[in-house]
Amino acid sequence: MNTDTIAAIATAMASSGIGIIRISGEDAIEIAGRVFQAKNKKPLQEAASHTIHYGYLMDRDEIIDEVLVLVMKAPNSYTKENTVEIDCHGGILVMRKILEVVTRNGARPAEPGEFTKRAFLNGRIDLTQAESVIDIINSKNDFALKSSVSQLRGSVLNKIKALREKLIHEIAWIESAIDDPEHYSLDGYSKQLGGMVGCLKDEIQHLLDTADEGRVLKEGINAVIVGKPNVGKSSLLNLLAGSNRAIVTEVAGTTRDILEEQVSLNGMSLNIIDTAGIHDTDDLVEKIGVEKAKEYLERADLVLYVIDSSKSLSNEDHEIARIIEGKNVIVLMNKSDLEQKVCREDIARLSEHFLCISAKEGDGMEELAETIRTMFLHGKLDFNDEVIITNVRHKNALAQALESLKMVEESIDHQMPEDFYSIDLMNAYEALGTVIGESVEDDLADEIFSKFCMGK
Questions:
Q1: Core vs surface per residue 159-180: b (16+ CB within 10 A) or e
Q2: What is the distance between the alpha carbons of residues 244 and 419, in angstroms, rounded to a whole number?
Q3: pLDDT at 350
Q4: Residues 141, 266: Cα–Cα separation, whole Å
Q5: Cis peptide before 75 (omega within 30 of 0)
Q6: Are strands 62-72 and 51-59 parallel, antiparallel or unpaired?
Q7: 421-442: per-residue pLDDT in tens?
Q8: How far apart are CA 236 and CA 230, in angstroms?
Q9: Consecutive H or E run containing 154
Q10: Could you give the C-alpha distances from 161 to 156, 317, 350, 386, 456, in angstroms and in order?
Q11: Alpha-carbon distance 28 to 3, whole Å?
Q12: Integer distance in angstroms from the first to the last C-alpha of the chain?
């Protein structure tokens, strides 16, 4: 770990009301004191921790800006190091000039995520909490934000620590019994261990079962709109997006390429893809569009199948139904404001989820949001104490731990010596350790923190 003093602009590089330059490291207060002139003339080095000081940021004898300086002394700061934050006016030029002066006086420019990396390496937060910081910054919906805040407060950390404590207890018992059989008996231990391993497997499997829901919370639902030409797919996209994102005409086949839009529907993020109408055509461009639509269907979390309910179902409708069979489908009976030619019985076999909507009038959107929430979030609006896995890295480590526990069960079934149990229990223990950063390669840490924005 580098222990030199780092500095970076912590706010967005855009003109705004205020900007913040963050400095962290052993010499942070000393360096800030060289460039800050307090209005009351008191040296910044004498300031008490967690105090704010008014004055001027100086480049030698020249005033750069009127600023407020916040002093936080180790270990009571974000990084557990001496930290100074300079609140200045939010102009790009003035922020860059202040950073330049600070670095010229002894700090070096921070790397992306280096402040949070130092918080992790100094033991203030674990790796799951560090990752939750960037998840909070990148949250696309209310659910993702709540989940990230829960992880920042230690929900995943506490769960993983509890699992590891159970494992290390059994490992210690086995090792003690092997080294000192006179005082530690392993008679009947295999059955006892099997019960404990079974419970641990159930707990880890439950966490893994939340991973798909967690991905949806974090990244949004990949939803593809499909249907015949001119059934209202583009009108639905425009309604969900709140703007005229797609061209809508009475001419069939207006949409030939793929249109993508990220929308928020009652707090959920949907990555909406509007596709070309699926039908037989001799038009080369339309054919390409239809093939693209089928490709996107393969990767979709959700299919919004739009039907013109003012017309009877055709062979093309039934062909589309065949293509989307087995997927998460909501059948949308569009144009409900017109005389209906399709009844619910006609489309009930396509999906258990079907709604009457009018993309033109905006009817049915609340029902659509509730249906999607039920399908993907089991209808839950709020988080309780349940831990939800939203990180692929965590999911992979948990899966590795689960496999190790299965190997313990196999060893028990085959009546293998107890030291075989210890090996696989330790593998599970270490796999869980990678989740919270107890055992992590430097390259992995660098990769995780490189995804952070500058100044965080």
A1: bbbebbebbeebbebbeebeee
A2: 67
A3: 67
A4: 9
A5: yes
A6: antiparallel
A7: 899 999 999 999 999 988 767 7
A8: 11
A9: none
A10: 8, 53, 46, 15, 26
A11: 11
A12: 17
